[in-house]
Amino acid sequence: MIPCHVYPPTLLFYAANNNVNGSGDMAAMRMKKRDYCQHLMQSLAKTLTHFYPLAGRWSKGHDMIQCTDDGAEFVTARVKCSLSQIFEHPDPEMLTGLVPAIGQPDGDGDGVSTTLPLLAVQANLFDCGGIAIGLKMSHRIVDGTTASTFISCWAKTALDGSDSHQVPFMVPKFDAASYFPPLDFLNSSQPSPSPAELADINYITKRFVFDAPKIATLQSNLASALAPHAPTRVLVLSALIWKCAMEALSKSSNIPLGSRPSSFKLAMDLRRRFEPPMSQTLGGNAVANIFVIATPSLLKGQKESDDETIDLKDLVVKLRKGLEQQNATYPTKLPFDSNEAWKRDQEYEKLRGNVDMYHLCSGSWCRFSFYEADFGWGKPTWVSIPSTGIKDLVIFIDKRDGKGIEALVSVSEEIMEHLESNPELLKYASVNPSVM
């Protein structure tokens, strides 16, 4: 169960000299700064008629959304710098100022708000004429697929103009409850935060960029371990970052590498996993959490100079087999077994309570259509994710070319100190390079 106060941030940057529709023609629509915001607000209002839950609020019992039409939040900010200054060395921590600040849940004791918006937008106007659209949506009802669909539909509505009466996109359906029967959470115990989550630890987020040729090299180096199936980009990068994070933890804590187990969790889109697959226009949060455990027997530690290391091929095989086993046993047929899915989540929450185990979570926003979002002044120059403030988290998102990947990694300062200097990681990744 995902707390409704979790709002994953997204940022779409548009340079002032973008071409309309990416066609190569100079922008036919030269808007003044005040017109940018008016254009966005009007098209947002139209889009919300199809994504109506995002304009509602949680009920007091937090078991449903009340479609009250209270609306989304829209704010405007003027940024006293140019986009080129942001792009030179973008700081995920600094970028949090470009997404809307949503307040804390009201004080009813269960972490659920009946007053906060489920969608908030911030339009950032830069001195150079560029614009950045920052969004936050409640993760309780919106996953990556729904967020991508919403942004795509909003952009198409804005680009289509105000004179058309035709809907320029596939209308989403918010009928996930008919596929995934809700459970009675009011009468079930909720997992309590683990001691590690309550600890006073500073977590920072840094950006690691993997260019397409480096990813291809890594895939080639690991192909024999995963034969006959070619390893995916996200799989090999997940294994690499997991490996380097465990090694960094060992160095920062002075705990031998082979003495501490670790878990790796990632989100699985259930729409694609069902038989037959569900429509990608199914709105909501149709995501399951699956995880893999690396035991001390795998992390046996091989001596190279004076450092203990993990064999990357062993880890990537473990990750692939673990995911295949989880995929094979997870309920993906109708009628959906909500109780079995809930047991899986409870199993993971219990696992996270083990303070003797290192836990790393991940999410992939690759293959989404963020870079196609043209609101009338061209496609995004850059799409990024600011710091989420969530511990031990990795989020993957495509580069603009659709082949490279940016990884936003949030770990403790002590782990980051060793992670960002890991020679194996730096062999494939650049730490926070210029966007352009």
TrEMBL record:
Keywords: Acyltransferase, Transferase
Pfam families on file: Transferase
Phosphoprotein listed as a keyword: no
Domain of life: Eukaryota
Family annotation (InterPro entries): CAT-like_dom_sf (IPR023213)
GO MF term list: acyltransferase activity
Transferase in keyword set: yes
Family: Belongs to the plant acyltransferase family.
Matching PANTHER family: F21J9.9, HXXXD-TYPE ACYL-TRANSFERASE FAMILY PROTEIN
Record's protein name: BAHD acyltransferase
Species of provenance: Prunus persica (Peach)
Lineage of origin: Eukaryota, Viridiplantae, Streptophyta, Embryophyta, Tracheophyta
